[in-house]
């Protein structure tokens, strides 16, 4: 089972995580909502969220690129975009404490999805798997994801496997109507023998897991 770049195209996703100064989050979000169109004029934004639970004062945004040459061209273009640099980049950089980026591919058995409606909440789950890659844990991981999908309480948006950044990392993006709907569904899933069996098999390969509840920005394509 291939989960890395062994896919039918060269499309990849850059996942950016920013730690925002606690007193500056409101200002940061306002500026991004106001001016992000200057950045999306250059390349496709998948989604932009801020954290509500699981991590504080963080934002996540995901950008889609056709290949690495495409990303290089976009980065050169935005570096020369005076509106982007002057109206947003120069303003928000002092509000950011730390930046982190990863390059990831969608796993071949997953297409990027959309929620059935706007609103609701997103859950970003990061799994750090044991070294060895998908050849070791890919099938068990896929079975665990499918077991949760089959319960019907949650909707899968995307599964991303890192190529640059911390390797053997898988990020899973879910959508639920509300935190309470998600909680109720999780309780049902924990009592589902299919889910229990699949999770028990996959955790043999798991080093750590971290969950965050995400709220989309007004400017985010995924809302």
TrEMBL record:
SUPFAM superfamilies named in the record: Dimeric alpha+beta barrel
Stretches assigned to the NIPSNAP domain: 13-110, 122-221
InterPro entries the UniProt entry points to: Dimeric_a/b-barrel (IPR011008), NIPSNAP (IPR012577), NipSnap_domain (IPR051557)
GO BP terms in the entry: mitophagy
GO cellular component, one term: mitochondrion
Transmembrane parts of this sequence: none
Sequence similarity: Belongs to the NipSnap family.
Record's protein name: NPS3A protein
UniProt organism field: Ptilonorhynchus violaceus
Name of encoding gene: Nipsnap3a
